Amino acid sequence: MVLLLIQTLSGFTVPEGKDRHQMPWDFVVHAAPDFRSEIMGSFNAQTIEVTYRNGTGWARMRNHDGNNWWVYLRDNRRFLPSGTLLHDARDGAPVAAIAPQMARVLQQEGNWLRVGTWLGENWVQWRPEPPRPIQHHMAWSFLTYLTPDFRAPRQETLPPQIVEITQLRDDGWGLISTPAGDRWIYVRDNMRYVDREVALYDKPGGTERGRLQPQVVHVLQQDRSWFQIATWDGPRWIYLRSAGQPGERLIAITFDDGPHPAHTRRLLDALYERDVPATFFVLGPLVASNPELAIRMVNEGHEIASHAYNHTDLSRAGADRIRTELTMSRDIIRKVTGVTPTLLRPPYGAQNSTVQAISAEFGWPIILWSVDTRDWETRNVNAIMRHFVDHTGIRIRTGDIILMHDIYPTTIDAAIQAIDLLLADGFTFVTVTDLLMERYGTIEPGRVYRQG
Length: 452
Ligand code: ZN
Known about the structure:
Blueprint: E1 20-23, E2 27-30, E3 39-43, E4 46-53, E5 58-62, E6 68-72, E7 77-80, E8 85-87, E9 94-97, E10 101-109, E11 112-117, E12 120-125, E13 134-138, E14 142-145, E15 154-158, E16 161-168, E17 173-178, E18 181-186, E19 191-194, E20 198-201, E21 208-212, E22 215-223, E23 226-231, E24 234-239, E25 249-256, H1 263-274, E26 279-282, H2 284-289, H3 291-299, E27 303-306, H4 319-337, H5 353-361, E28 366-367, E29 371-372, H6 375-378, H7 381-385, E30 389-390, E31 393-394, E32 401-405, H8 409-424, E33 427-429, H9 432-440, E34 448-449
Parallel strand pairs: 25-26, 25-32, 25-33, 26-27, 28-34, 29-32
Antiparallel strand pairs: 1-4, 2-3, 4-5, 5-6, 7-10, 8-9, 10-11, 11-12, 13-16, 14-15, 16-17, 17-18, 19-22, 20-21, 22-23, 23-24, 30-31
Helix pairs in contact: 1-8, 4-5
Bound molecules: zinc ion.
């Protein structure tokens, strides 16, 4: 369940080094970069942290609770919706109702804005959307409190139900109305129902430590699709892909040999717009020279994995050299992104039993592919696209792992076309780890995988 934080917040601190933007007037955030899209909350004038700018004035704003809603950054311009009333003076009678239009904001006084329109300078009332209650499903009986504090005297115990939360704090407490009066409840989703048997691990991607039967679990922390839960034997990790529906046609698109400063950036922008996750098998020196792109990969939901450090042919290398390549690759990815990679794609797909054995030492499976687009060879969009669709129709099958290289402009053009085509055909893109976990339920270190 997604919880929306709908409340007016005054300033919070944007960490040093982040992309900041000063919003001089009160402002609203939207669900999409479109004034007609749903308003998700309103904020007081403040400095905000921008995580993405789309180039048309809209940006994503990082919020307290991790939500990334859209905000219109050309802050001296404000969209006045249909029927907005213009007033000659603050608190005066309206003089005109206007067609929807952009206006320049000249001044703000409380709930009033002085705006410049085609009709001249007028005052309009700035009415942020009133906070709407958030519907939240309380799956178990729950306690109520007079203040948002577990040490406060307990009030009623209420049965499982859908509650309307009129104020949600980012520490997990929410305010509800009950027949007995206003009550605080703790709404954090720390309980979760696991609907199938899953493996228990000592750490994400680690060693299996038994099985868990379907049951309600207490979630201690989450690391992407990995959840640490409390068990009788202490904390254990389980893998639960957060999205996903039965019958989905899952595929994984992968990009090797980057990150490239220009082409990977364009690809990441396109993936972000489409909310498509990819898997990047990166090279050490390029991660070191393009750290911001490696960080973007992680922050934007992609999987970052090892392509060895120097694009060495591991099948011709000795054991020591292989270990050095994998160690350096793992360490640079971890140093730059904070994420430890868990997959290896050997350069050229070249591998043998030694590579498999050493990959297993690292806990990594070897990821090859089922669709080779030959993009590095043809560098031609039409030629690349023929691997996705030809006169017989779409050539991609559920479970495919698609191989591309994000270091050629033609690859990026073709990848965008192919992704749009496959999305329209109903495929769902997932990372390689998600694809293999959905298909096999576990991933064996050292094993060679060509598809999910
Ligand atoms: Zn390569």
